[in-house]
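Could you help me review a protein record that somebody else here produced? What it holds is a sequence and that sequence's fold in token form. I need someone to confirm that the token line plausibly describes how this chain folds. Take the sequence as given and treat only the tokens as open to question. This is what I was given:
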Amino acid sequence: TTETSSDSDSSPTVESVEDNPDGGCHIYRNGYYGSSIAVVEGILEVNIIQMTSIQMTASQAENSLVDFVVTCQGSLPTDVCTVVSDPTCQVSKSMVCDPIVVTDECLLTIRRAFEEPGTYCINITLGDDTSQALASALISVNGGEST
């Protein structure tokens, strides 16, 4: 609460009342607190630069395989997640996450299987301990061929 003093000093008097219904201890600390902050670059950008259908023989045609070539800027990722959704990117159909090792340049190929022909929304997320970045694309899979 704040009350105005009745003496000639016009500065307000501040009174602090603390409610402690459980009857526990109060700890008051005075002093300074110090901490350090490390600023990391993180993964700044992800781009899907190529999508290639993998040609399969008739006996292997259970799933259509597509290779996604992905680049990124910033720190090097340690894992990749791919979410396959309906064409509106609203209803998720599957999600696959894998650890990856990128040693020098952020350029990697991600192979994913599609069980049936159709148009899909693909979200590829690259991540590390401190950041994530996402790229999205629409892909049409036509029984072993993609566009």
In short: The domain at 43-141 is CATH 2.60.40.10 (Immunoglobulin-like). The first strand starts at residue 2 and ends at 4. The mean pLDDT is 81.
